[in-house]
Amino acid sequence: MMSKTWLLMRIMLKMQYSKAGKSHSQMWILLIAFIFCIPFVFLYIGLIRSIVTVLFESLQPIGQETVILGLLFISIHAILFFMSFFTIMNTFYFTEDIQSFIPFPFQPYQLLLGKATNPFLYLYLTNGFLFLPFYFIYGGVSSASIFYYIHGILNFILLPFVPFCFAAIILMIVMRFVNVAKNKDRSKVIAGIVSLAFIIFINVLIRLNTDTDKITNNFADYIQKNDGLLNQITAYYPPAYFQTKSLTGAGTWEGILCLLAVIAFTIGLFSLFLWVGQQTYLKGMFGAGNSKKQIVAKNTFKKAITQRPIWVSFIRKELRTIFRTPSFLLQCVIQSLFSPIFILIILLMDSSNEAFAAFFDNLSSKQTILLLFLASIILLGTNATSLSSISREGKNWFVHMYFPISIKQILFYKIMTAWLLNLILIGLLLIIGSFLFQLSPLYIGSWAILMFIASWLTSTFGTYLDFSNPKLTWTDEQEVFKSRFISLIALFIYFGMFGGLVLIIWNSASIHGLFLTFLSIMIALVLVNGLVLKLIQSKIRAKHQHYI
């Protein structure tokens, strides 16, 4: 029975990460991204070392150093839970490949384990990025014994299971009783919006129930008790408490018993996950059938075939595809707006917004515009619209070769589509800057101009990356975004390139004041834009023979 399960897991992984149809150029892109990433890895580790050292030296004299690991486990569990929520929804219910395995003699729990393999890879990568640096640095700072590291490795292996199983059990029960067969497309959009709204709601609820005076009074009581802060922080989430105590008490009976409690709880929860999956997964999955067909009204059809300029028709077609396809709408529009909306709500509920205005008042004009520019280009660069420009077409991409327009025009219209969608994000950022950061009109105007140019750059470069190595052989829209590192590669390149530019201008004595800083950034953006356009033209010439 287990051999069947392992075989199924291997097959599903191979289907996800098969190299069939992929070019070797992706390896070079990954190598470039890795090179850009190296300096930031050292920066990240150095930052963690400083944080852990300062916290340990401050909390160790009063016997509260265990709260460092408690906060770490609470944070990782929360992050992995929300990651699991999104990946389970997409992988378990909104992909079509599961239908291929139904005729085979697999139990529902085996299908469930096969589908869970890919989400677990993402969880372990995230877990390694967040947990391992803190874990090793805390061990070094606290002069931990060998038992600490043994317990830590076991906790690392077990850590993703708890948040994943919690999220999976909740979703499987909900999907069992919610029939999405009648409107699968709408269900995808609603599920994504509800998930993001839930995160915002939790943050709002926490902030509304935060009594600063009460917390201050209780803090004095907690620090007088050994591990008092740890007990308070993990009071409502026992897994984090037992994992923390298994590390801080490593080598003692208390640590061993806590580790055994973690193992027993994980096994029990995982068994419950398999049992619930055996009972509900396929029933919920069969509810996630195909969407209903819609009948187009006669007047709507006549309006749709009205003659328009080519560029207007093409961009309207792109926008309709994005807004009418739930997976594209979630990835290209809703998720890109989540971060600024989340920040906006947090700042609106904060009574000390003057602190942000004071923060910018303490910066020079050069420093202000540099920070605004760097933040905006990272947010604009993570928009998936341009990074999926070609891949969204799938196998229909080659139909474009028969259109009476050139490939250069098609790419230009796709870049324009991504730029237009970025205007929504730019508008939100300008609202935050105007009303919450209380920036002057001069700063807002300069920032807006830079964002318009930067948006065109990120749209152009994202389209170039996708045009260089598109994913055209997908069977479900989610596959356009899954198992691809293109957004991460783009982010590293933007951060490496423009982070270096910001660093140079920041430390340059010859560039000072708003005008010179603005002019320097704009010249750099124009030059990079020109370079990317040259790259696109050369890529068109290199691929032209394949499209004839």
UniProtKB/TrEMBL annotation:
Keywords: Membrane, Transmembrane, Transmembrane helix. It comes from Virgibacillus massiliensis. The chain crosses the membrane at residues 66-88, 121-150, 156-177, 189-208, 253-276, 328-349, 369-390, 411-437, 443-465, 485-506, 512-533. This is Uncharacterized protein. It holds the Pfam family ABC_tran_2.
